[in-house]
Please model this.
Amino acid sequence: MAISFDLKGKTAIVTGCSTGLGQGICLGMAEAGARVVGVDYVAAPETAKMIADLGGEFTGIEANLLSIDPIQGILDQTLAKYGSVDILVNNAGIIRREDSINFSEKDWDDVMNINIKTVFFFCQAVGKQFMKQGNGGKIINIASMLSFQGGIRVPSYTASKSAVMGLTRLLACEWAKDNINVNAIAPGYMNTNNTEALRKDPERSAAILGRIPADRWGLPADVAGPAVFLASSASDYVNGYTLAVDGGWLAR
Ligand code: NAD
Model:
């Protein structure tokens, strides 16, 4: 069969790898055969062990992605170890909750810095490397339901994730001719640290669950398959698309 989801021989950089969706994506990439370079501001021993148990290859790099300073060093370390890079998953992201009327400049800047500024400059650095290598490449940005909807009490998050969807389209338009696929995944309401506050609030939690057609919160494993698809040659003619992985939330 010509269709392949196989990532053997490929190197994937995944940011925000220590827990949550990033961990699920790392495992998916490793299961599909990729060597995984996981980046996080904390160590990722659990992810490293899970990948070792699969017989996969994992390198952890500690770096704080609130600033764009570490990006070139991460790329250089990846190239020094594996020789090339084929896949970038911009997953690391944060959320700050406060009424817009009281929202602080710090909560605006921190979220915008990691969720969109770092995402752009990581795409730029890896895009340059893909062009140098000359075999194309795959970029997957992690968007959100709040790329499509407004939400409440998370103004910098909604602004950043709406920007992720737009940026994904723009980069796809510029780079598709170089065989670089830039796409995004928009997770729905997933059971990770990011949604802990929502899940602890009985009213919001029940309201959210009651609106999810799949009748459950999503899990890190739910994004692994879609990420592998967008990282593989099976998606070579998919460009600039944001794929919802949401248990039907947007279809409702
Ligand atoms: P999470 O908080 O469980 O994981 C975030 C990861 O990013 C962690 O590994 C964390 O250590 C890392 N990280 C945080 N700040 C960092 C920094 N300054 N430098 C480097 N790494 C840093 O959240 P998650 O739900 O797994 O979120 C992953 C992505 O998915 C985020 O972009 C988030 O916005 C997005 N997302 C999550 C949901 C959801 O429901 N959980 C929904 C839509 C989108």
In short: Strands lie at 11-15, 35-40, 57-62, 87-90, 137-142, 180-187, 242-245.
